[in-house]
Amino acid sequence: MKAVFNFLKQYNNAFIISIVLGYIIWFAFYIIIPVQTQSLSFQTVSFIICATLSLILGYYSIKQKHKPSVHTKQKNYFLLISLLAILGLGFRYFDLFYFRQLSLNNPYYLNKSISIKAVSQSNLIVLIIATLRILSPIPVLYLIVNQSREKKNWIIATIIIAISTIEMALYGTRKPLFHLFLLILITYYYSNRKPIQINLKTVLIASISVTCLGMFSYVILNKRLNEREQTNDKLINVVDSRYNDFVKIEDYKIEAFKKQPNSFFTNAEILFIHTGQYVIHGFYELDYIVKNNFSHAKGVYSFNPIFKLTNRLKLTNTELNTQKNHPRGYVYTSFFGSLFIDFGWFSLVPIFLFGVFQKTIFLLSQHHTITKVFFIILLSVNLTLPIFNLLSGSGLYLFIMLTIFSIYCYLKKLDRL
Questions:
Q1: Eight-state DSSP code of residue 249
Q2: How far apart are CA 238 and CA 249, in angstroms?
Q3: Sequence-distant (≥ 6) Cβ neighbours of residue 88 within 8 angstroms
Q4: By CB neighbour count within 10 A (0-12 exposed, 13-18 middle, 19+ buried), where does 278 fall?
Q5: pLDDT band at residue 68, thresholds of 50, 70 and 90?
Q6: How far apart are CA 353 and CA 346, in angstroms?
Q7: What single DSSP character describes residue 244?
Q8: Can you tell me the distance from the alpha carbon of 311 to that of 319, in angstroms, rounded to the nearest whole number?
Q9: Given this model, what pLDDT does residue 228 score?
Q10: Handedness of CA 263, 269, 270, 271 (dihedral sign)
Q11: What is the full DSSP assignment across 46-71?
Q12: pLDDT tens, 321-337?
């Protein structure tokens, strides 16, 4: 067991394992949940295989030079990152509550509608500074990596996380909390100097965590539905909603649910199936795009936040609507799918370069805590490759900010700053 742990703990191995584990999770849900699916086309399967190999080849194209490990005193970036995150959160809520007039008393769908319509009323400087909020999970990950025992810092990191959940309460979104849980889990695993003991305590903590996340997801989902529907089978309707068109639940299971729509076991099973649909539907959406041969968005889909900013700054006048490139824009298309929407088969090139980038960050992570945190975040991207693109939307801001921090650390190491 110890030998297996040591093997998995190597960051080079972690790269491969994160990818493999992502596919294992995908296939596990595909096998278990009772949904109707069509076979993925040969072209789609070929693209997924080629994209995965391109990422791996890119990573291993950079050779690691074996140098003796030199331990140097690192600058502590905890307070700096915490201050930036707090600044970003402050400006974010100033924008949401003052400019956009959102309210915690509003239904989720109303806040979303108001936010979209009122975004043009927000101050550009406020919007730019508000992007710093994406750094909110970094302080707690930083402390885990350093195995810090500073209570003051833990209190600061916890407060930042708590403040960031206000936005979840406004929109009823579940993804940020699940992503945070995933990041904390991966960070703890790779920062733990001793093998994780599979004992009663570990199983109990894991069970409680999963149960709490499940309950949170159920409460949010149920509240969303109560805002719009009053029927007894509203939870049944959600697993048969439009973003599950290609992974519809089996008819026999729907009929079984309708017999006891309010049963605890029915709702628990529905929530599990809904999670499974969420996990596997991306590849089927990608298949739809590949087979229909839509025109490509040339970067506007995956890098939309950058084009939004340059348009606001009057530097560009790019059409941001990607409806013709991705008609079902309300669904996930996996990490590879979002790049395929932009570049088609040519996306294998940026995917290869992303592998090169990950290896570069890994090499830097051996010298700096902040780049180690960055590498762990990239592992979470690998883990969710078949599901969605964690680097799209606000995730792109985090990627850019941590890249800037990594470049700074590298130049600092070379004594050029």
A1: E
A2: 10
A3: 129, 130, 131, 132, 133, 134, 135, 136
A4: buried
A5: very low
A6: 12
A7: G
A8: 9
A9: 62
A10: positive
A11: HHHHHHHHHHHHHHHTSPPP------
A12: 898 998 887 678 899 99
- 3-state SS assignment for residue 248: strand
> Do the bridges between strand 35-36 and strand 248-249 make them parallel or antiparallel, or are there none, so unpaired?
antiparallel
Tokens (6 digits) for 406: 């990594």
Query: Which amino acid type is present at position 126?
Result: V
Amino acid at 243: Y
Hey, what long-range contacts does 395-404 have (CB within 8 A, 24 or more apart)? Answer: 395/134, 396/302, 396/303, 396/305, 396/306, 397/131, 397/134, 397/305, 398/134, 398/135, 401/131, 401/132, 401/134, 401/135, 402/138, 402/370, 402/373, 402/374, 402/377, 403/374
What pLDDT does 217 receive? Answer: 74
Cα separation, 259 vs 271, whole angstroms: 17
State how far the Cα of 42 lies from the Cα of 181, in Å rounded to an integer. Answer: 35
d(CA 82, CA 180): 16
Instruction: Give alpha helix (H) positions in 192-263.
Output: 200-228, 234-238, 251-259
Torsion angle in degrees (nearest 10) through CA of 62, 65, 70, 75: -20
HSE-up of residue 348 (Cα within 13 Å, Cβ side): 12
Residue 123 structure tokens: 């101050």
Q: Which amino acid is at 34?
A: P
Cβ atoms of 148 and 154 within 8 Å: the answer is yes
Q: How far apart are CA 341 and CA 286, in angstroms?
A: 9
Around Cβ 415, how many Cβ atoms within 10 Å?
Answer: 6
The 3-state secondary structure of 7-19 reads HHHCHHHHHHHHH
Q: Which residues contact 190 (CB under 8 A, 6 or more apart)?
A: 9, 11, 14, 376, 379
- At 84, which amino acid appears? L
Average pLDDT, the chain: 85
Distances 163 to 52, 76, 166, 168 between C-alpha atoms, Å: 37, 23, 6, 10
Structure tokens at 302: 């995956």
φ, ψ of residue 35 in degrees (nearest 5): -125, 155
Return the number of other C-beta atoms located less than 10 Å from residue 243's C-beta.
15
Q: Is the separation of the CB atoms in 15 and 382 below 8 Å?
A: yes
What are the pLDDT digits (tens) for 224-250?
766 665 555 656 666 666 668 889 888
Q: How big is the CA angle at 277 (ends 272 and 282), to the nearest 5 degrees? A: 145
